[in-house]
Design brief:
Length: 263
Amino acid sequence: MNPLVAPESSVHGGRTALSVNLNKVALLRNTRHLGIPSVTRAATFVLEAGAQGITVHPRPDERHIRSADVTDLAALLQAWPHIEFNIEGNPFHNLMEVIRAVRPHQATFVPDTVGQFTSDHGWTFPDDAERLRPLIEETRALGVRVSLFMDPIPDMVRAARDLGADRVELYTEAYASAWGTPRQAEVLDRYVRTAQTALSVGLGINAGHDLNRDNLSDFLRAVPGVQEVSIGHALIADALELGYTETVRDYQRCIQRAFAPAR
């Protein structure tokens, strides 16, 4: 398969790009053998509504996204050259074979175990450093940007840059759990300081996990330099009630509010 042509930037008009994770569409489809709902139709709907990227996380057991979905989405996105394809997963399981075959715009390395329910922590350095280094080098040599899934810890972000990563994806579950509680400001400050560190060492910043229409604007308003958010579970759940089009447009309004001038 020919490599996808990477868009110049994931930042659109100075704002954070929205990448829609389609895993939960595939999870619902896999409960029957009818091929519905369609992952590629879902991708088409969210892109037509204004999403700037598509994310998938193909796990080894294919309990949601399957290898055929990755191939089908890569083919679909040939007609959307300005759209970013982000494939995430553990590079020590099945991810590297997918990256070599598809060459997406971005590979997000996530330290999941094989049967893990959902991603729940970032990489730890120096523990994971030396085994990650050659895979980061290989992925970048394929022309694919590398993002590492990281907890909001400034020293870990510095180490990610030393390994050659292009970006980090800040794991935002801690923020989402604290949002609306007395702990919100304290927890959010960890993300602010980590983002500042990332920017100071030349890393790009992505974010994702449990971001939703309630907490997204506050996060983006506070945390500097977030180029892309990857949102799946909450967005697909909203789409069941609102439809894909209105849901994506509402998330874009959340992003727009974060960047609106203060009155």
